[in-house]
């Protein structure tokens, strides 16, 4: 998302870096490399990625699942989960992600529609300065992974988006212990 340089993208692709695409232009740039991650997609965008061999995409609602069932039933989906971003500057969970308590319903519906869910994602807004908030988000996502076993999906992907600003108050070493 931060560089549209073809040279940079090719270099990153050569070392098998994943890409996080949110619009058709970005998709075209990394053509069929990884994943389209805008939670609310037009059917035409879903068809475009399907026609171009892109399998991995995100979803966070029943409406999106229905679009996939019609336009890209072979997609490998990643469930986007909303996190507690009350201590963040920008509250992305108001717009993106399903609540943990509604995750089971979405997973069950995906199973009923025969759509493969391969992972869970969450996004900590880039100016989050609270490691405890991050660890709570990881805990919430672990709960979703536990649900998955009951719904019979084989999930193998955890996408941790966002990050922390460099700060004397944030001890980054605390984060991995929470994971």
Automatic annotation (TrEMBL):
GO function terms (MF aspect): ornithine decarboxylase activity
Gene3D superfamilies to which the protein is assigned, alphabetical: Alanine racemase
Gene Ontology biological process terms, A to Z: putrescine biosynthetic process from arginine, via ornithine
Spans traversing the lipid bilayer: none
GO cellular component: cytoplasm
UniProt feature coiled coil, ranges: none
One Pfam assignment: Orn_Arg_deC_N
Domain Orn/DAP/Arg decarboxylase 2 N-terminal: residue ranges: 1-167
Official protein name in the record: Orn/DAP/Arg decarboxylase 2 N-terminal domain-containing protein
Organism of origin: Monodon monoceros
């Amino acid at each position: 998302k931060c560089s549209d340089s073809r040279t940079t993208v090719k270099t990153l692709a050569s070392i098998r870096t994943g890409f996080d695409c949110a619009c058709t232009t970005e998709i075209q740039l990394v053509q069929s490399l990884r994943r389209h991650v805008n939670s609310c997609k037009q059917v035409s965008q879903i068809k475009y990625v399907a026609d171009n061999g892109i399998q991995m995409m995100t979803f966070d609602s029943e409406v999106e699942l229905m679009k996939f069932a019609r336009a890209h039933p072979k997609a490998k989906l990643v469930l986007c989960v909303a996190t507690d971003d009350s201590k963040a500057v920008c509250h992305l969970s108001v717009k993106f992600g399903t609540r943990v308590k509604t995750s089971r319903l979405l997973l069950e519906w995906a199973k009923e529609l025969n759509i493969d869910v391969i992972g869970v994602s969450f996004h900590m807004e880039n100016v989050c300065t609270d490691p405890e908030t991050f660890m709570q988000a990881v805990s919430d996502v672990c709960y979703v992974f536990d649900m998955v076993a009951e719904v019979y999906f084989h999930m193998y992907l955890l996408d941790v988006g966002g990050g922390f600003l460099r700060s004397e108050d944030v001890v980054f070493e605390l984060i991995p212990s929470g994971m």
